[in-house]
Amino acid sequence: MAKETKGAKVSVDTLNASDGETRPANRLNRRAALFDLSISILPLYFVAFAFLAYSRTGTLASSPLDQDIFRMAAFNPTVFPILFTLICAKFIKAVANFKLERGATVGAIQHLLGSRSLVTAITTPFKLHDLGVVPFVVIVVWALNPLGGQMALRVASYGSNYTTVSADFDYIDMNNSPFQLLDSPNRLSPINAAFNTALMSPATSKNGSEDMYGNVQIPMLESLKQSQKADSDGWYRTGQLARVNDTSTSADVLEGFIGIPNDADTNLGIPTPVYISLTGVPFSWNSSLPEQDHPMLNNVQVAPQGSGKEVNLESQFNFETSYFSVDCSVAQAGTARSGDSFAQGINTATGVVSNDHQFVVSYDFNHTINSTAPRQIELTSWNGHSRRPGDEVSKASCQLTTTYVEAAVYCASSDNCSVVAMRESLLDHPKPALSQLDGIAPSWNLTSNMTQAQRHAIPELFFSGFMNASGNLTQDTNGLSPIECYFMHPEDPYQCSTDATGQYALYTIGDELFSTRFTQLLNTYWMANVAPYSMTGSFTPNNTFEGSIAATTSGQIRIETIVLRCNVPFMIILVAISIALCLAGMATAYLDATRRGPDILDNFASSLRYNPYVHVEAGSGMDDGLKRTRRLRSTFVQLGDVRPEDPVGVVAVGTPTWKQPMRMLQHDRQYR
Questions:
Q1: In DSSP terms, which residues pair with 423 in a beta bridge?
Q2: Count of other CB atoms within 10 angstroms of residue 1
Q3: Given this model, what pLDDT does residue 493 score?
């Protein structure tokens, strides 16, 4: 049985080897070594993870194994700091024990014990007034903790692989779209339905790069010329291509794929596209190519979809097209007296058509394929809602020409296409003064077998159908038609046509805006006339009714495959930190296994050893802090005044008993 120390009268110097248990120095602590070794191999998980990500780089990201890698990467920032702190803190303590057995300064031991986290590694040097090289190295070591966690997260990421293949695209050829010389209700029903659907479409469809059916909208070249200069190949930019910085990598990649020079002058600003019509040109990718020609495309189509977007198909093609361009001068042409009836017999006049409600179009009836001047058109509209005297009459004098363009289409995905650049067509075409109303289709055959009467019938039937396509939905016989209302309120022309309170004089919008909207209306009705089924979402090259006006152009499809991408620099950093952790863990195992003395650091119970004010069994001097804590876990101790009766108190940790009186520290008492 161990002796009890006799209060303050017994000093450490009076103890001899016979007091307490005896035990030799530790030889090999196998249990501690095995525990430390088991921890030291855990960082090899991150080494294996890094090399697994490296081996899978470039593989389909949606594959099960790659999805597991991404889940592991998301979990890594949580695991890595815990493992790093565990190994690094144990290693620092093992080094402190090693130095203590061989002799070291109190400052060195305390600095190591106070640097077992990033925060304490920073604050301890300031507390100890030691700002040397060693504290800096310790801080750098702890800084590897968050760095390694981020590397473990970012080693594996999503990337893109691109493969470009050639492909054919079918589209409605507006250069080869003959007018249907029929005036039957069966023919007009789908035409008017397509036209009125376009007229009623939302503003996002009228002003977007695609209409509501996915047809690609054609910008007005005349508008682009006002806002920018052409590049070296004559291209004007619009849409997506005009919105990227022409010095950026993304622009270079995009322009390289599309084949547009990177030297356009867009200093005048990015234009807001003004489109030629309310509907776009129908097109589709020709998917009837043999499988052996494009095996990758066929593989992409059947590839299983993962949790994210696995494959994206970008496409690009150029095509030739044309459109009506109207240049008008509009002004007030007097007023109409109240009660004036519509001009009698106007529908029987040559080259004049109306909707029977004070909306008239007259055109140059004598314009032929041999004419050198543009066709003249006059449009007259009464501000018909007001029944008061003085209704204003608007009259526009216009010139109708044809603009031939080459459009570059880029599709960022299968449902996101736009014309990104346009230029004047480089091919041979009829004179701009001629138009489809002169019967120049098909294939610019100006010497076809069409009779002069048939050619004259084209503008007559076209304008007659155009003027009456939307009807007159007002109850006022003198009210505006939806076509007239489009000039004033293009966002909702049908609501305007039933509003009997407003004044709608068309001349008030000015020449430029009137010309633009008249151009859009004429082109929309022409497209509805030549391809009503295709423009409403039913385009197929083999369409029985409209397949003859389909054309084919060559383009490219770029297959973007989402793959796993290994960041090699991050991988190297992660592997280096993980191997260093593994070595630190092994070093900890060695130092703990070869420690000769007890582990007295970082244990409060060790501070009670040979304390003359603590009256407990002494035990063996080879007991480490953990064993001593178990033995003394129920012992009550206190930090206070162990000499409460003396004039000057003594501060120490003791066991308050009748043998060892203790008192709490007082503010009005002196202590030593």
A1: 406
A2: 5
A3: 86
Question: Based on the domain organization, do 413 and 523 belong to the same domain?
Answer: yes
**638 DSSP β-pair partners:** 654
**20 and 30 co-located in one domain:** no
Q: 295 pLDDT band (50/70/90 cuts)?
A: very low
Measured in degrees and rounded to the nearest 5, phi and psi for residue 571 equal: -60, -45
pLDDT at 1: 37
CB burial readout 45-83, b (16+ within 10 A) else e: bbbebbebbbebbebbbbbeebeebbebbeebbeebbeb
What tokens appear for 353 in the block?
């058509």
With a pLDDT cut of 90, the percent of the chain lying above it is: 29
403 plus 543 within the same structural domain: yes
Tokens linked to 345: 């017999």
Q: Is residue 80 part of a domain?
A: yes
440: Cα within 13 Å, side-chain hemisphere: 21
β-pairing, 638-641 vs 651-654, is: antiparallel
CA pair distance 19, 15, nearest whole angstrom = 6
Using 50, 70 and 90 to split pLDDT, how confident is the model at 318? very high
Q: Is residue 247 part of a domain?
A: no
Determine the Cα–Cα distance for residues 276 and 280; give it in Å rounded to an integer: 9
According to DSSP, the β-strands at 359-363 and 352-354 are antiparallel
Residue 652's pLDDT band (boundaries 50, 70, 90)? confident
What pLDDT score was predicted for residue 267? 58
Give yes or no: residues 78 and 46 share one domain: yes
Most confident of 57-61, 264-268, 399-403, 624-628: 399-403
Which residues span the domain enclosing 316?
A: 165-220+273-562
**Domains identified in the chain, total number:** 3
d(CA 303, CA 559): 13
Residue the block writes with tokens 């039937």: 461
Tokens at 454, concatenated: 């048939």
3-state class (DSSP) for residue 116:
coil
Question: Which helix (H) or strand (E) element contains residue 587?
Answer: helix 568-593
Confidence of residue 274 (pLDDT cuts 50, 70, 90): very high
Shared domain check, 373 and 439: yes
Contact 277, 215 (CB under 8 A): no
Instruction: Kindly list the distances between the CA atom of residue 215 and the CA atoms of 302, 338, 417, 531, in Å, as whole numbers in the listed order.
Output: 26, 46, 9, 12
Say whether both 402 and 497 belong to one domain. yes
- What is the reported pTM? 0.67
- Whether 244 is covered by a domain: the verdict is no
Q: Is residue 30 part of a domain?
A: yes
